[in-house]
Amino acid sequence: MLPNQIYAVSIILIFLAITFLQSGYDKIADWKGNVEWLKGHFSQTFIRNQVPASLALILITEVISGVLCVVGALQIFFTEGHRSEFGLYGGVMSCVTLLFLLFGQRIAKDYDGARTIVIYFIPAVLAVYWL
């Protein structure tokens, strides 16, 4: 990896780690509030009865994504950019998580929310590409 790529990928992995770990923490800290809000958000969709299970799936994928991104960023640092399998796994898992979130927003017909997810998806795809 070129020096500029090392910095860019490290920054993206840290960005994704913060995004997903904070989001996962929020889901754990206010599980009940999140479930209630999402039940309303998905009340007119086919997943209206699976909101807690869907939220649990998203929580799991977010935490896995965040942890893999942290380990990947550390791996880049300690190997001086020579390798980062964990960074690649974190980038891929971040993309999968964001695709789940995008799918949910599209189901709920929350097009502004779906558009916002694309902002996060772009750096995640860049991380996968560079790694």
Q: What distance lies between the first and last C-alpha atoms, to the nearest angstrom?
A: 8 Å
Determine Rg (CA atoms, Å): 16 Å
Beta percentage is under 5%
| Anisotropy-based shape | elongated
Uncertain residue ranges: none
Determine the mean pLDDT.
95
Sketch the topology as an H/E string, one letter per element.
HHHHH
Defining traits:
131 residues, mainly alpha, 5 helices
Short description:
The protein has about 130 residues and is mainly alpha-helical. About 85% of the residues lie in helices and about 0% in strands. The protein is elongated, with a radius of gyration of 16 Å.
What does this structure look like?
Helix 1 packs across helix 5, helix 3 runs antiparallel to helix 4 and helix 4 runs antiparallel to helix 5. The N and C termini lie close together (8 Å). By secondary structure, this protein is mainly α.
List the helices and strands and how they pair.
Layout: H1 3-29, H2 31-41, H3 51-78, H4 85-107, H5 111-130
Helix pairs in contact: 1-3, 1-4, 1-5, 3-4, 4-5
